Prior knowledge:
Oligomer: single chain
CATH superfamily: Aldolase class I
Number of strands: 8
Number of helices: 12
CATH topology: TIM Barrel
Amino acid sequence: xxxxxxxxxxxxxxxxxxxxxxxxxxxxxxxxxxxxxxxxxxxxxxxxxxxxxxxxxxxxxxxxxxxxxxxxxxxxxxxxxxxxxxxxxxxxxxxxxxxxxxxxxxxxxxxxxxxxxxxxxxxxxxxxxxxxxxxxxxxxxxxxxxxxxxxxxxxxxxxxxxxxxxxxxxxxxxxxxxxxxxxxxxxxxxxxxxxxxxxxxxxxxxxxxxxxxxxxxxxxxxxxxxxxxxxxxxxxxxxxxxxxxxxxxxxxxxxxxxxxxxxxxxxxxxxxxxxxxxxxxxxxxxxxxxxxxxx
Length: 295
């Protein structure tokens, strides 16, 4: 079981929306140096929705190449098309990826039984171990704890990224899934409390720009050092919140470029660059989190 700070890695792009492989390598080195527990390549923060299959697999392969076994690499394998998710998972499995992150099917709004069958089909057909990913604010689809409990320990399903921010779900999830089922927060703002209440880590957007501080906060929370964890989290809170001032990953890509972690803040349509009106607020959040010097 991976624990601590895992990064939902952005996919660096140039001003034309083409993948910037050099910056990708720099990001991998940044996370290795910071002690990040694992990299999730080509999740939703990595703009998986707008990359084609070959691009998706290439980004994962390059991330593996740059990591060179020094840090675990997970990969996004989700889709609202079950057949496509199976195809993607099979490719990732053949590449040596051991664990996929599988977002709930967006727009389709399946029933809970449909969600159960979706994930069971991916696991049965591909053999790829999966972390489920529940983010109803983006997908319009809520994976209920009872359904997670049905899936836990079956079909290679070994964890959940829970991005509702609803901490009352943690206890029933733990009771339904058991102690050896990994529970990760997908909501940076409540991730510290999630771990202090028994969660195993955070799959984090903030870690893209504050990798060392996120690792330190997660380590303290998992060790039960509440005072240190909460202190570090308070420092990071302006970033946790401001990274969603516009749709993710718009702000985090701007911040990565501002900090020199990637060359450009490029995205693919329909996402657009961070608006000029939002940039001062993002700049202020970086300063309050001590990631840049105050003006």
